[in-house]
């Protein structure tokens, strides 16, 4: 299983009043371990003054490298965010941060084609890596970036995006929108919601262009990503060409956050758990969880109300996780046997759920026996 390694902080570069780019040095012996694809992220952790372990995931923003000597991530200060506050206000150059090797499936393998992205706020971070990598690697690739920010002063990676425009003037198209500030050129102020994007995208790309893009990449707050996804469906874009990564899901209501009932053979949409002679809560308190992790198996009793991840962590501290909020996908595992319900899911694609994958941090057993494979 991937393990945390301490990496030295090489630099901290202020991007805005509330955001910075953190660059970590990778020693030669770990460079192959930390190779990454465009769009992936790393999990960082620290132990606070109370001895509690704090983990957060941050997307890599530099072009993909198979043997990187540095890792660069963008971090925006979140109100009440324990790790972002530490990173932006306490962490200093020369310090160390523990990091897991890169992971994530919000990626674009460089290839010729036409690609587009709709991003909001810090959602620019992985898309910056994706756009820079594909334009650098493929002369026949074109990329359209539609980004939304509150104000010009709050916009992350302004210089890096401007550099892409300068380097690839015929292959990189940039459209900016500010929700709280008028700009001299570009779109009128206002949020990029479903209705606005449905009208805007055909004007930018023409209807055949919208439908025929080889890939759409949506990243940012839930509202923006959800609205963009619905606009693309309205405009006839095949779902398989739309890739999403949620950065903030706080605005989700219960209906939005509800996950699926998943069985070992895939999603069981709208169905009740298999009959076990009791309620789902009663099963959760008496279920047995079998888990394979790092080639080793274990069998443990679940406590009342526990998620699968919590059950495994009580017995295996090396179980993978980061956000515990159903957003990052670090705890993704294959359900081999039994059935579970997921409270929230903002990380798995429909195809993954249909194939039997679940988020361990959000899954509760609804059968007496559940088998989970973190290696699968």
From TrEMBL:
Gene3D superfamilies: 3.10.20.30, Nucleotide-binding domain of ferredoxin-NADP reductase (FNR) module, Translation factors. Keywords: 2Fe-2S, FAD, Flavoprotein, Iron, Iron-sulfur, Metal-binding, Oxidoreductase. Residues 287-376 form the 2Fe-2S ferredoxin-type domain. It comes from the Bacteria. Its cofactor is FAD. SUPFAM superfamilies: 2Fe-2S ferredoxin-like, Ferredoxin reductase-like, C-terminal NADP-linked domain, Riboflavin synthase domain-like. GO terms for molecular function: 2 iron, 2 sulfur cluster binding; flavin adenine dinucleotide binding; metal ion binding; oxidoreductase activity. Residues 2-109 form the FAD-binding FR-type domain. The keyword Metal-binding applies. This is Phenylacetic acid degradation protein. It comes from Streptomyces diacarni.
């Amino acid at each position: 299983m991937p393990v945390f390694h301490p990496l030295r902080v090489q630099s901290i570069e202020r991007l805005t009043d509330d955001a910075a780019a953190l660059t970590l040095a990778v020693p030669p012996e770990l460079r192959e371990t930390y190779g990454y694809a465009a769009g992936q992220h790393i999990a960082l952790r620290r132990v606070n003054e109370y001895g509690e372990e704090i983990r957060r995931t941050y997307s890599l923003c530099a072009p993909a490298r198979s043997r990187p000597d540095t890792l660069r991530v963008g971090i925006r200060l979140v109100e009440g965010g324990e790790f972002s506050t530490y990173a932006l206000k306490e962490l200093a150059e020369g310090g160390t941060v523990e990091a897991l090797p890169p992971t994530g499936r919000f990626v674009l393998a460089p290839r010729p084609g036409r690609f587009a992205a709709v991003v909001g706020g810090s959602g620019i971070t992985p898309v910056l890596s994706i756009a820079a990598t594909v334009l650098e690697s493929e002369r026949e690739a074109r990329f359209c970036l539609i980004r939304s920010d509150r104000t010009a002063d709050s916009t992350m990676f302004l210089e890096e995006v401007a550099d892409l425009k300068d380097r690839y003037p015929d292959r990189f198209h940039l459209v900016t929108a500010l929700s709280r500030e008028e700009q001299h050129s570009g779109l009128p102020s206002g949020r990029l919601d479903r209705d606005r994007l449905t009208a805007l995208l055909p004007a930018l790309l023409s209807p055949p262009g919208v439908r025929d893009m080889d890939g759409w990449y949506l990243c940012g707050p839930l509202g923006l990503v959800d609205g963009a996804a619905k606009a693309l469906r309205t405009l006839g874009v095949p779902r398989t060409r739309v890739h999403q990564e949620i950065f903030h899901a706080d605005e989700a209501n219960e209906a939005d956050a509800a996950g699926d009932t998943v069985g070992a053979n895939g999603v069981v949409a709208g169905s009740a758990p298999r009959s076990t002679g009791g309620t789902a809560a009663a099963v959760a308190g008496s279920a047995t969880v079998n888990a394979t992790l790092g080639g080793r198996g274990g069998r443990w009793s679940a406590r009342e109300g526990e998620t699968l991840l919590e059950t495994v962590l009580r017995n295996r501290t090396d179980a993978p996780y980061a956000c515990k909020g159903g957003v990052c996908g670090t705890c993704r595992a294959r359900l081999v046997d039994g059935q579970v319900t997921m409270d929230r899911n903002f990380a798995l694609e429909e195809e993954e759920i249909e194939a039997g994958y679940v988020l361990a941090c959000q899954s509760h057993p609804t059968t007496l026996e559940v088998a989970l494979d973190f290696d699968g």
